[in-house]
Amino acid sequence: MNISKQTKNNNRSITLDSRPFGAPNTDNFLIKNQKPPSPLQGQVLLRSVYLSLDPYMRGRMNDTKSYAEPIALGETMVGATVCRIEISLNDNFQEGDWVLAFSGWQDYALSDGKDLLKIPPNLANPSFALGVLGMPGLTAYMGLLDIGQPKTGETVVVAAATGAVGSLVGQIAKLKGCTVIGIAGSEEKCAYAVDQLGFDHCLNHKSDNLAQQLEQVCTKGIDVYFENVGGRVFDVVMPLLNPCARIPLCGLISQYNATELPEGPDRMSLLMGSILIKRIKMQGFIVFDDYSHRYNEFSQAMTLWLSESKIKYREHLIEGLDNTVDAFIGLLEGKNFGKLVVRLGPDDLI
Amino acid sequence: MNISKQTKNNNRSITLDSRPFGAPNTDNFLIKNQKPPSPLQGQVLLRSVYLSLDPYMRGRMNDTKSYAEPIALGETMVGATVCRIEISLNDNFQEGDWVLAFSGWQDYALSDGKDLLKIPPNLANPSFALGVLGMPGLTAYMGLLDIGQPKTGETVVVAAATGAVGSLVGQIAKLKGCTVIGIAGSEEKCAYAVDQLGFDHCLNHKSDNLAQQLEQVCTKGIDVYFENVGGRVFDVVMPLLNPCARIPLCGLISQYNATELPEGPDRMSLLMGSILIKRIKMQGFIVFDDYSHRYNEFSQAMTLWLSESKIKYREHLIEGLDNTVDAFIGLLEGKNFGKLVVRLGPDDLI
C-alpha cells in the first residue's frame, strides 16, 4: 500500500514493532492503516498536518523506567502535532481550528479537548508551535534563564548549536549579553551559527583537536554549559568550566543509542569531584513537568523577539509520513539542520 | 625534643614535609620549633588553644589546582583555631580575648586582627566555634536548607552521620519534619545517631547488604542526599533518588586518598543520565565562599536550637600537638566520633 498520501478515509499510523538495540532501524517500526475513528459527543476528530520529531522519542522506545512510560509494543509512536479540527462535537472547538496536540505518528486521533492548545490564527506558520513557540522554545528559554542564570559578559557554550533547542539557547544568551560558543556537526552548520544566528564562535565537533579549539575561544572559561549532547563534547567542556558554573542538563543525544557503558576508568568520581571543587550546579529538567506553568511568560517574550527579528528560527521540513522513520533515524545522527518537522498532509484536505 | 607541652617560649609547628601519595602518613609531616614571633604595632600575638581537624585539609596537601592554593612544602599545615590573645598592640583586642582564627597547626601566630572573629565570652565552650557554631555548622545549615531545600515529610539521607557536619544535617532535617536516614561506620555510631540524635534509622556502611538495607528503610525513596562521602555510599543512594531530588555536594571523603580512578566501566554518563531523567539538582559548594555573608542568620538559629537543647553536639577531643598527625590520619579513615578538635594548650598558660 502506498502510504505517501494523507486521505480522508484512512488513518495511517507508525507503531513500535520491536525495541531497538542501539540505533533504531526501519525494522523497529510498522505502518498500520485503519479507518479514522469517529468522535463521540464532547470529542473532536484531529487531523495531523505537522508532526514534531525530537530526540526524547528514542528514550520512549526503550522498556526502561524513565520520566515517562515506555511506548508499548504495537502502540503508535508518540509525538507533538499541529492538527486541524476535522469534526467537532465539542463546544470549545470549531472545524478548521488549528491546535497543538500530542497525537503521535498518525493522521487521525480523537480528543476531548483537554489536552489541546489553540494556535492563534495570526501565527506566521502553525508549525512554529512545535518549535520556537513550543516545547523546544520553552526548553531553551527556561533551561538557560532559570537554571543557567547567565549574566552579562559570561561565556555560554551550547552543543547541537543549530538544533531546535541549541539555536534558541545561543540566541537568547546573545540577547542577554553573553559570549556564545556553539558546537555543531558540520562546517555548514557552524557557519550558519556564526553568520546567521550571531554566535561568537562555533566549532565542529568532528574536528580532531576540539579540546584545543574550545580552550582557545573560551578565553575566560565557561560559565554556563547547556547540555544537549554528553559524551565527547562534555569531556572537552568539563576542564574549562569556571567556578560556580551552571549546567542545565537538557539532553544527552550522544548516549541515547548506547547499548553499554564506555570502558573505564570510572570517571563518576571525577565528575563529582569537579562539581564539588568548582562549586558547579548541574540540574536536569523536563520542560513540561517543571515549567509548563510559565508557558505564557515565555510565549510573550519569544513572540516579541520574533516580531523584532531578534530570534531566527530554521525548520527542517520533511514531506510525508513515509519519510518519517528515516528522518527520525537521521535526527539521532545529527543529520537534520534546524527543527525537524514532518508535514503529514495539506492545510486543507478536500 | 619533647613536643607534648605548650610553653611561652617555643612555637611548635607541624609543616608539610612531603606530599602524600594516597593516604597520608607521619613521614609527610615535620615538626619545627621556633621562637614565637613578636607583634608589631597594630598586631596581636595569638596562642592556639584548640585546633580543628577537617577532611578538606587532605586536599590542600596535594599540589593540584583546587578552590584554594595548595600548602607549599615546608609550610605550616592550615586550619581553623580558637586562640587567646597573648599580646595586643591592636586597639580592637585585649589580652585574654578568645578569637576564632585560621592560624594552622602551630602554637603562635601574628594577626592584624582583620581575619579574627571574637568569640562571645558566654559561649559554653570556646571550641564550639570550630564546630556547631563554626564552619561545619554553617556548612550543614546552608547546604541542607539552601541547596537541599527539604520539605516536611520528605526523606533526607546523610552519610558520615555522626561527623561534625552530618550529625547537624540530620538534626536540622528532623527539625524541619523530614524522615532522616543516617549512614555511619560502626554500630556504636549508628546507635548514637538514632538514640541520641533522633535519626529515624542509621545504617552501618560496612555491612554487606547496605543497598538492600537502604532500600528497606527509604520506603518513599530519597528526596535529599547530603553528600559528604562519595564512592560506595553514593552507589547505593543513586538508584533510590526520587524525581527532583537535591544533592548538596559538600565532600567526598572516600575519594580524598585515591591515587587513581576506579576501574571501568565509565559511569559518568550513567550519573548524567540519572540527573537528566530524574531532574536531579547536584550542586557543589564551599561554605566560606558561598555563604559567609549569611553567618549571622545561621548563628542566631543555631544558638537558639542549642539553648533549647534541640541540637546535640559531640566533640572528639584530642590532647596535645603530638597526637595531631595520628588524629588527622584517623579522621580520613572515619576513626573519629564527633567533631575532631585538638587541644594544644591550657586555657591560661602561666
Annotate the secondary structure layout.
2 copies of one chain form a homodimer.
Chain A: E1 11-16, E2 29-34, E3 44-52, H1 56-60, E4 81-88, E5 98-101, E6 108-111, E7 117-118, H2 135-148, E8 155-159, H3 166-175, E9 179-184, H4 187-195, E10 201-204, H5 210-217, E11 222-226, H6 232-237, E12 241-249, H7 268-277, E13 281-284, H8 287-291, H9 295-307, E14 315-319, H10 324-332, E15 339-343
Parallel strand pairs in A: 8-9, 8-11, 9-10, 11-12, 12-13, 14-15
Antiparallel strand pairs in A: 1-2, 3-4, 3-6, 3-15, 4-5, 5-7
Protein name (chains A, B): Enoyl reductase (ER) domain-containing protein
Organism (chains A, B): Pseudoalteromonas denitrificans DSM 6059
Domain Enoyl reductase (ER) (chains A, B): 22-342
Task: Describe what you observe in this structure.
- Two copies of one chain form a homodimer.
- With 350 residues, chain A is of the alpha/beta class.
- Chain A folds into two domains: 11-130 and 314-343, Medium-chain alcohol dehydrogenases, catalytic domain (Quinone Oxidoreductase, Chain A, domain 1, Alpha-Beta Complex); 135-290, NAD(P)-binding Rossmann-like Domain (Rossmann fold, 3-Layer(aba) Sandwich), CATH 3.40.50.720.
- In chain A, 25% of the residues lie in helices and 23% in strands.
- The first copy, chain A, is built from ten helices and 15 strands.
- In chain A, the strands form three sheets. In chain A, strands 3, 4, 5, 6, 7, 14 and 15 form a seven-stranded mixed β-sheet that branches. In chain A, strands 10-9-8-11-12-13 form a six-stranded parallel β-sheet, sandwiched between helices.
- In chain A, α3 (166-175) links the parallel β8 (155-159) and β9.
- In chain A, α2 (135-148) packs across α3 and α2 (135-148) crosses α9.
- The longest helix of chain A is centred in the middle third of the chain and has 14 residues, at 135-148.
- β13 (281-284) of chain A pairs antiparallel with β13 (281-284) of chain B.
